[in-house]
Amino acid sequence: MFTGIVEELGEVTAVEQLAEASRFRLRGPLVTEGAKHGDSIAVNGVCLTVVETADGEFTADVMQETLNRSSLGSLGQGSRVNLERPMALGGRLGGHLVQGHVDGTGEILSRTPSEHWELVKVALPAHLARYVVEKGSITVDGVSLTVVEAAADHFTISLIPTTLALTTLGIKQPGDPVNLEVDVLAKYVERLLAAGVDPLSAKTGQEQP
């Protein structure tokens, strides 16, 4: 589980194409500190398993399913990436609950700079639109953000200078793909309601009349 608060701006140092998979080597001295085989690290919002670490770098195998559902397949040597370690139980939840399971990809449509922030419009896949609400949370390339405007085919986010400077969202341009993860709580509520279960009921499994 992650919070969507990016810890480090890392870099892809190598990509090896495998049979229906890719092996990435990524540089991230902070997130690899103390990391070991089997640990998880979020890369642009995608939860990956560490294969090995050495000299501030780690490798991770990315299966075809992940390449199909995320923008990781567009990364190459030299690409910058957002990195985050899993949250520690008992720690502060700075963003919102993020699983690192990408729900789909969007595309940067436009950027509108202002004096103290930048408004970014992102294309929204139709199957995710119902989970995105004004002032709600969404994860874009692993960054926990608040939705400014929610429309049927896009949403907007407002980026502060810190986010622009410390994440890849500061260098993404119109046309670039981004990974999207919606609030998992909304998906659970939808599933319960579809099954006729009242999620506010104190009795587990109590159904609506």
Please provide a written account of the structure.
- The protein is mainly beta and 209 residues long.
- It has three helices and twelve strands.
- The chain has a six-stranded antiparallel beta barrel. It has a six-stranded antiparallel β-barrel with strand order 7-8-11-10-9-12.
- β3 (40-43) and β4 form a beta hairpin.
- The longest helix has 11 residues, at 184-194.
- It is globular, with a radius of gyration of 18 Å.
Relevant terms:
six-stranded antiparallel β-barrel, six-stranded antiparallel beta barrel, 12 strands, mainly beta, 11% helix
Topology:
Layout: E1 8-18, E2 21-27, E3 40-43, E4 46-54, E5 57-63, H1 64-69, E6 80-84, E7 104-113, E8 118-123, E9 137-140, E10 143-150, E11 154-159, H2 161-166, E12 177-182, H3 184-194
Antiparallel strand pairs: 1-2, 1-6, 2-5, 3-4, 3-6, 4-5, 7-8, 7-12, 8-11, 9-10, 9-12, 10-11
Question: Summarize this, please?
Answer:
The chain is mostly beta strands and 209 residues long. Helices cover 11% and strands 40% of the residues.
Tell me the span between the first and last alpha carbons: 36 Å
Total count of helical runs of at least 4 residues? 3
Number-wise, the strands total 12
List the helices and strands in order: EEEEEHEEEEEEHEH
Computed CA radius of gyration, to the nearest angstrom? 18 Å
Mean pLDDT value: 91
Query: Describe the biggest sheet?
Result: 6 strands, antiparallel, barrel
Work out the helicity level.
Answer: 10-25%
Strand adjacency order, main sheet: 1-2-5-4-3-6
Q: Using the alpha-carbon principal axes, give the shape.
A: globular
Structural class call reads mainly beta
Unreliable sequence segments: none
Strand content: 35-45%
